[in-house]
Amino acid sequence: VPVGCAATVACLAGGIYSFSKGHASLSQRMMRARVVAQGATVIVLLLGSYFAPKFVPNEEKRPHGMTPIEFKLTQQEEQSTSSSSK
Question: pTM of this prediction?
Answer without folding.
Answer: 0.62
